[in-house]
Amino acid sequence: MNVKALGRLGEPEWRVVFYFTLLSTLGGGAWMAVAGFHRPQAADWPWLAGIGVTATLAQLALTRAYHRGRTLTVGALAYTTVGFSAIYGVLLFGERLPGPAWAGMAVVAAAGILAVRASAPARADSL
Predict the structure, then answer these.
(1) Is 28 within a domain?
(2) What contacts 23, CB < 8 A, 6 or more positions away?
(3) CB crowding 64-75: b at 16 or more within 10 Å, else e
(4) Residues 79/109, Cβ–Cβ less than 8 Å
(5) Longest dimension (CA), the chain
(6) The whole model's pTM is what?
(7) What is the full DSSP assignment across 88-115?
(8) Shared domain check, 30 and 1
(9) What local confidence, expressed as pLDDT, does residue 47 receive?
(10) 92 within some domain
(11) Phi/psi at 113 (nearest 5 deg)?
(12) Do 5 and 65 belong together in one domain?
């Protein structure tokens, strides 16, 4: 809702993403100060750079969607990332998720579909 409001006020997507990233970095830094830090291996840096670039592009796209689209629809679609991540984990890394994890993802997906349908304006042909 806040991102949508910022869009209505004319804030550009890049500025919203910049401050989101800044606050997340500060929060992550505070957490590392408490929990500890270890330096990534040299082989990890290309992966981390790739994750950083793709995450930034994804956040810019998501922020644009919130600015210009229907907030509830965008939010419901954003939750599909959990399911896709689980499927990728199974297919690419051989992960095994317990039944309750799959059931939880199904409940979240169903709730998103129901919320979007309930908020959709009635069509003239259905009246």
Answers:
(1) yes
(2) none
(3) bbbbeeebeebb
(4) yes
(5) 63
(6) 0.69
(7) HHHHHH-----HHHHHHHHHHHHHHHHH
(8) yes
(9) 95
(10) yes
(11) -65, -45
(12) yes
